[in-house]
Input
Amino acid sequence: MKQPIYFISHGGGPWPWIPEWNSDYKTLRHAIEQIPLELPERPKAILMISAHWITKGQLAIMSSPQPSMLYDYYGFPEHTYHIQYPAPGSPKLAREISHRLTKAGFIITEDNERGFDHGAFVPLALAFPKADIPIIQLSIERSFDPLYHIRLGETLAPLRDEGILIIASGLSFHNMRLFNPQGHRPSMEFDQWLQQQLHKPQAQRIDALIHWEQAPSARIVHTNEDHLIPLMVAVGAAGEDTVTIHYHEDHAMGGVAISGFKFGE
Output
């Protein structure tokens, strides 16, 4: 059965393991925990595209049979550097995906040392806490070319028919200096634009995302677009599937508007 695709917010650092943040992230937690209940069947594997794995001039794919952990955050309590998410990898699936991408003209290498970064293990630990589904991480490319990543998604799209769940993990707002009330207005302007474009037919939403910098407050909301680029992969893999708002808050993370999206049934 065909799996949907998600573009999710992974929140700030190791937030689920910080009790005093529980109330701030209640809505996001609920949205992520609902993902397994929305799927047509249990995924055979999960392909995770995280904003926190960026490679230059090529892509990289995780190929370890038992990936380690990568605590890519700073200044948090000591216990958050001992979190474990012991999900297995799948070298076989990594090779299959690598082969498909190579045939499509992408340059890709297999990385058997890469661990799960927090853009991956934080949402996965909430949605699939048993850690018993094989997980593969795929990088994004440092040029942040929208069309490149949309075509990457198009190449990955057939995986959905093979029972593989694709999750793109980033943030629809990512300006570290404006996670506060000052960020509210630009975040609302960009979020409203983004919702409008994603509800259009595929050709139109692709064109809009290619020219995303023309959107209202675009470069205020994303001074660096690393957290937006996973959405490009999701849109490419979505084809003509309709979009629904999977998660939304008007005053999240200090006062900004943030949305997450689901493509497909």
In short: The longest strand covers residues 45-55. The first helix runs from residue 26 to 33. The mean pLDDT is 97.
